[in-house]
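Batch job 17 of 40 flagged for manual review because the log was empty.
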Amino acid sequence: MLFRGKNIKVFSGNANPKLAQNIAKIVGVPLGNSKVQTFSDGEIGVNINETVRGSDVFVVQPTSNPVNEHLMELLILVDAFKRASAGRITAVIPYYGYARQDRKAKARDPISAKLVADLIVASGADRVLTMDLHASQIQGFFNIPVDHLLGVPILTPYYAKKFINDLDDLVVVSPDLGSVTRARNFADRLNVPLAIIDKRRPKANVAEVMNIIGDIKDKKIILVDDMIDTAGTLCQGAKALKERGAKQVFACATHAVLSGPAYERIQNSPIDELVLLDTVVIPADKKTDKITVLSVAPVFAEAIERIYEDLSVSTLFA
């Protein structure tokens, strides 16, 4: 018999409580009563202030900056729920930290994405719900079910409405070869052409544009990526597109990591608008007129309801 807990309970760590609150509101339950605090010596303590015995518990916690702190919060929360006899525990990780360390790029490299997966399983999670893993094969690092949601179905309706009369002038561009599949999916949904930026990366966080494959002259461009970290690749790509005759450059990504000089680069770039999802908190004082934020709460709420009812979640991937 398939498991169904006696009720849904949604809890949050400190990484993105607003998103957790919005998800719980859409699901139709109050956000769970818990507290995650840091002691003076840096250790993390968790208090669960309501019964979860037999419940279907969903812990919303992206492992964003500070990554290690938020990861430990997630692990300790899951452990607490396991020891409190929760019926089933789903780790809802809108942004999965360490996802870029998914393979040995050179000798003696760690595969930290696998280590994090092992830690989550060892803590007591029964399944994982996440979005736009940097490398989709990370799903295979887990020995428990992983539901992998996509940001593209949230982003494309925004552009379909924005450019409803300009689709003939629109081209979707992948910022590198690694993002081609995502960009092609994006382009197919809008029924517009695809172009690719061919670049090499001399060292970490430094990218050099080599060539642009496709016709972008006098076109409106949408650059599509899964995450923006220092924004070097994105802004350099936008500059190259403008130099090669693009009319306007727009950009979008699922995860707003935005570390280091990212905000300054975006503000000074030729990008007209950057659309991001709220998997990661964007500080209010960092938001500018160039940045538009769309919410992932509705799609995560629907996924949670489907998991609880033992219904297919795959329809949300389409």
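Reviewer: the log was empty due to a logging misconfiguration, but the result itself is present. Helices lie at 17-27, 67-83, 112-123, 152-162, 180-190, 232-243, 262-268, 297-308. Unflagging and moving on to job 18.
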